[in-house]
């Protein structure tokens, strides 16, 4: 895992114990959407009250009861108390909880159908037209609106009535409306206008959200709140005039107190055309934009909160506790004890066959402290006073993370924070031991299974000659994105402390994991693993799962997409390597990277390409004959890092 890939890390799925490691059911999606809708509605209810009061006010702002946002707040609080700011919240929740649940569930069904169609046609999310997101949003908005519309009418009446109250509660309002207008004309007043509003609103909101997430990953990264904020603003600007017309339809003929201004005459709102003519004639174009300020202030954060909560682990975990989530079938990673696994057999049976493997039995020989290595005294003793850059608040998940999310601290200080669970969301990742922490080269030992790395054995020094191994120190419950390491490098990780949960896919599964190359790199960006599980992983995505514990070493084949979840505070060292199994793929990528990134990267390609690899025995001198059945001694299967780096040709 290179620094470049680690910097792009994002949240990956919860453990299977949380029930979030497989396909999310429709009920789970609906409940997550309901939680998101309720959260957003409770936060922005006061702005909704102000918006509605201003929208149904026929007078100009300069002469009306409410003369602006601040004036409206002062007036409502003075006349109705603080509770007045939440007038109509009960029907609003009755509206938005089922509305958002239905909306997200419908959108999920639509996206599942779209994804299934793409898989049948051999397409991926990277080639998906933005139109799909807009159509899906429109369909979801229409279904949710029709099923929940009566609550919208009740919300508007209760929020706009002021004092003295005409209706005491939702039930009273429903009875009054049915009595005055009938069930269809009363409870569904303005439905056609609402659909004319909600279809473009949902299309713009969901379509722009999806477009921002997929088309501008370097700008927005995994910032669901920012994407939702921009999407909500765009949707509101498009449909606000229709919202004003809808509100007038809903309260037409409503006999609220004249203290709140002229009443909306039902005669002027017999149909959509008549309503538009009435507003344009009596109030001008500005009439269609009454309440726009509180509407924007409300809609943008409401959209941001809705998307952020829906995407957040909290909503997913709460929802998953009430439903089961069947995980796609995953194979167990094979385990081999080092005493019976020679370097030659490792390369023959695992590396050249692209099969991950966990090597056990090396616990006592990975560090200079032997059996006590898990305590990590070697780490603080040798490098405790070294300064390291630590990302905070899960900043390592975002490729656009700024220096504001990074602290430079003593390694000893950070290790103490992590082991005491005093630094949630922090990560020290992919720090080169030879280049940044050279005092550790005498403390850790490289398993010889990976000592034949061609990149570190070239005649000339390159950008990667002394890059590995790298140190990883992570707080509990931090995660990486689903990603592929650059230039098809094989990867290994030796666990010293704690447990990491790994998910590894075969490299041929990459096309089925919705890869996107829009950011211009050879290693594609992919949606978070839990998102892919929610929409349904393809049966063609061959997958392995494994929990890697102290003293165990994992091999990940080059080009294999993988994701990691730190179940505990963890310490590990790791590295990439190239051998005969991935050499040709690595050379292709290195050359392309050199053409794109300049001379230094091209030098790495030239250095690797100029070696005569036909004489493989010169490089694979650890490939001893493994016909002997005698157990191998773990001490003979590791080499000190400083000694390994000194073995240059």
From TrEMBL:
The keyword Transmembrane applies. It comes from the Eukaryota. Residues 435-594 form the JmjC domain. Residues 1-16 have a biased composition (Low complexity). PROSITE patterns: JMJC, SOLCAR. The keyword tRNA-binding does not apply. Solcar repeats lie at residues 24-113, 128-215, 219-316. PANTHER family: SOLUTE CARRIER FAMILY 25 (PTHR24089). Belongs to the JARID1 histone demethylase family. This is Putative mitochondrial carrier protein.
């Amino acid at each position: 895992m290179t620094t470049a890939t680690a910097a792009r890390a994002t949240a990956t799925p919860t453990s299977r114990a949380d029930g979030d490691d497989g396909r999310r059911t429709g009920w789970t999606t609906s409940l997550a959407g309901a939680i998101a809708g309720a959260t957003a509605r409770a936060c922005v209810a006061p702005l909704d009250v102000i918006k509605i009061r201003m929208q149904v006010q026929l007078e100009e702002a300069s002469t009306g009861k409410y003369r602006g946002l601040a004036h409206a707040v002062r007036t409502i609080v003075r006349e109705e108390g603080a509770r007045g700011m939440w007038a109509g919240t009960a029907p609003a929740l009755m509206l938005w909880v089922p509305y958002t649940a239905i909306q997200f569930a419908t959108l999920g069904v639509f996206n599942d159908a779209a994804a299934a169609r793409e898989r049948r046609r051999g397409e991926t999310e990277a080639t998906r037209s933005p139109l799909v997101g807009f159509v899906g949003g429109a369909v979801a908005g229409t279904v949710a609106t029709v099923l929940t519309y009566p609550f919208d009418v009740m919300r508007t009446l209760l929020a706009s009535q002021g004092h003295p109250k005409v209706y005491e509660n939702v039930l009273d309002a429903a009875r009054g409306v049915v009595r005055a207008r009938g069930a269809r004309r009363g409870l569904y007043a303005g439905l056609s206008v609402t659909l004319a509003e909600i279809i473009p609103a949902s299309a713009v909101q969901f379509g722009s959200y999806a477009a921002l997430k997929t088309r501008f990953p370097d700008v927005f990264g995994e910032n669901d709140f920012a994407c939702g904020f921009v999407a909500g603003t765009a949707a509101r600007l498009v449909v606000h005039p229709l919202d004003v017309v809808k509100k007038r339809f809903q309260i037409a003929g409503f006999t609220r107190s004249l203290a709140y201004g002229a009443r909306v005459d039902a005669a002027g709102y017999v149909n959509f055309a008549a309503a538009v003519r009435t507003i344009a004639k009596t109030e001008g174009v500005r009439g269609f934009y009454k309440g726009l300020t509180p509407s924007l202030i409300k809609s943008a954060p409401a959209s941001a909160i809705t998307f952020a909560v829906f995407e957040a682990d909290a909503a997913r975990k709460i929802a998953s506790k009430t439903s089961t989530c069947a995980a796609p079938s995953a194979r167990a990673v094979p385990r081999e004890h080092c005493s019976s696994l020679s370097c030659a057999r490792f390369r023959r049976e695992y590396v050249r066959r692209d099969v991950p493997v966990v090597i056990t039995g090396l616990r006592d020989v990975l560090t200079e402290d032997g059996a006590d290595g898990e305590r990590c005294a070697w780490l603080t003793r040798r490098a405790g006073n070294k300064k390291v850059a630590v990302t905070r608040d899960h900043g390592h998940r975002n490729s656009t993370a700024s220096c504001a999310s990074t602290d430079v601290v003593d390694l000893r200080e950070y290790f103490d924070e992590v082991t005491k669970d005093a630094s949630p969301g922090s990560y020290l990742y992919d720090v080169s031991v030879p280049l940044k922490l050279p005092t550790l080269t005498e403390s850790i030992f490289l398993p010889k299974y990976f000592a034949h790395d061609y990149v570190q054995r070239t005649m000339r020094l390159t950008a990667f000659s002394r890059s590995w191994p790298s140190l990883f120190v992570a707080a509990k419950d931090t995660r990486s994105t689903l990603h592929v390491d650059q230039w098809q490098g094989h990867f290994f990780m030796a666990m010293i402390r704690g447990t990491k949960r790994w998910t590894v896919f075969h490299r041929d599964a990459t096309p089925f994991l919705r890869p996107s190359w829009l950011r211009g790199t050879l290693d594609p960006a992919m949606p978070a693993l839990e998102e892919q599980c929610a929409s349904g992983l393809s049966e063609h995505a061959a997958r392995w799962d494994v929990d890697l514990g102290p003293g165990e070493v994992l091999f990940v084949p080059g080009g294999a997409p993988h994701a990691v979840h730190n179940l505990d505070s963890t310490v590990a060292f790791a590295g990439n390597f190239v051998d005969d199994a991935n050499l040709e793929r690595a050379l292709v990528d290195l050359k392309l990277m050199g053409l794109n990134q300049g001379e230094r990267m091209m030098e790495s390609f030239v250095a690797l390409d100029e070696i005569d690899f036909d004489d493989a025995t010169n490089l694979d001198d650890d490939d001893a004959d493994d016909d002997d059945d005698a157990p191998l001694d773990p001490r003979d299967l590791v080499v000190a890092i400083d000694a390994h780096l000194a073995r240059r040709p």
